[in-house]
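Researcher: Structure for this, please.
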Amino acid sequence: MLKDFYKFSDEAGTDEAGRGCLAGPVTAGAIILPEGFSNSILNDSKQLSESKRELLRPILEQEAVTYAVCHVFEDEIDKINILNASFLAMHRALDNLSKNPKFILVDGNRFKPYPSIPHECIIKGDGKYMSIAAASILAKTYRDEYMAKIHEEFPMYNWKKNKGYPTKEHREAIKKHGLTKYHRKSFRQLPEQLSLDI
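Model: Predicted structure, token format:
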């Protein structure tokens, strides 16, 4: 059973999706849910089927006090590294909320403090607090939608199915076709990149 609030009613939950991918953006969601909000399906996005996530997204968008989603793209990920890009995506999502939260709940164990608003990092928070679970669903569905769109441009990588994660199919496609503009150049795209031919 997910809890509603940690300390305050005006709490924003934030979470990201796509951190371990070889291609595409890292995407963060931030959301403030109203007092008394409940939903029997809502859970960590990874525990839900795609159809349930898609069902929940419009409900969350309609019911939220405010919400925002932000992509940080490959070029920025390559410049500042994926951890900093994840923090940046969450900060930008928080920047775009129409109301300032009193408190920020962050999924995971690390976060770069957001100016003048206290926060708490919650390990596996997307399975404990409604606002983090809701943020995880927004981040995941918006990122999946983006990956399905760029799949049309580069269907040989099958991002519609693997979403840019380092699956065997994705790595085989990189071997065969090389990298696209959507690939993260700072990531080890193929395992053999570590070995030197001497």
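Researcher: Any notable elements?
Model: The radius of gyration is 17 Å. The chain is about 35% helix and 15% strand.
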